[in-house]
Amino acid sequence: MGWWQWDRYQSSSGTGQNLGYALQWPLFAVACIWGYRRFVQLEAEQAEEDAVLAAHADPETDHDAADVATPAPSAVADDAAVRRVAMRRAQAPLSEIPADFLPGRAAPSAPADPDRGDETQDDYNRMLAELAASDARQERQR
To answer: Model-level pTM greater than 0.85?
Structure first.
């Protein structure tokens, strides 16, 4: 599409808009390639983090009390990897909305007590009755 827009720009009926589109299409292609590669990297990092955390939490890889006093080099590397993963996850943006972010819904109101009248509604009904009576009197006078 970019090549076609470039040819169109160079033609006698070409405009600056065609030049803009000619430059825009390669940028779209670069953005798509960059986005795909970035998502692949993020998936690989997530899989690596999950593997590090799973290996660290595995009871078979825990060391005896004697080994804790003098940790093996791989244990130190594992602890550093776990710290890196924990720090990266602490800095990561939220992936879901916290429960207390949005205001809560109002509790449903109790059903109206039929024995207790609503004063506003009673006033409105009296006004309607007076209007109806006034209309009836006017009709009778005609």
So the answer is: no
